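Schema walkthrough. Field components (list of strings):
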Amino acid sequence: MDISALTLNAAWFLPALVALFVWGLTAFLPKLLLRSMQPLHMIVYNCIFFFITVCGVQVVFWNDFEFDMRGVALAMATGACGTLGQVFYLIALQRGPLTYASMISSLYPAVATLLALIFLPDPLTLRQGLGVALGLASIITLVLASDSPANPALPKAVNDR
Amino acid sequence: MITASDKRWIVPAIGAMLVWGFWAFLPKLALQTLQPHSIIFYESLGNFCVSLPILFHLRFRLQFQVKIVLLVGMSSALTALAILSYFIALHNGPVAVVVTMTAMYPVLCLVLARVFLKEKLNRTQFAAIAMSVVALLLLVWPT
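Field assembly_structure (string):
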């Protein structure tokens, strides 16, 4: 096995694993909280607390403050898309069945993959392509599996993408 | 009663898919000129572009229960940690692989529920877990 390839993998694999675990561990929290708080109120609170947290991160990187107009615009667009997605998702849930709304919205990695293929020279091996396809299939399967009355639907976290 | 035949949900559901797709992709472009810790800061300002109109819509009257608000705060802080990790991963890896891997977090929820809460899983859920494990191996195994 190529050790250098393993090192390269660790550079993105470990933080991706942290994200996966933290999102996985906290996915149930919004579900519980939505029993006591209206979704729109929760979106606003999320934004406020998210801002406070990242201000803390900025304090840690105090000497490394960056400003680049293009980067800032893209980052702000990222934030707007994230919150707008939550609003769209809530509207979809209000109007339609959870299963189908979740299934369609959880296909966002396909959109990101398509954008990357179009706009970035992002190399993707055949094996990784198969992994992406199988990963999307597993997400759809999971959403469809939630149809069973014995296993209530796993909600998409409201403070999530 | 909500039914699948009532199609008014399709447009917002597709809208969520599209804008979340952009959410996952745009940081990769921003990472060309900024570091992850800066992107997450400016992202939080972008969040307000949408949440401020919501706040106006709510007439600046937010529900307030100390315990619930504190829990929302904790959840948001953890989300910030996850997103920062996601940006760091995106900085070093291909978009398609990183976004697909992190989007499989509901599978982790199922596994945790099975292990710690002894919840029963149906066959389809087991199939989803098996598929995601294989997908993860395909995604991360070095070439």
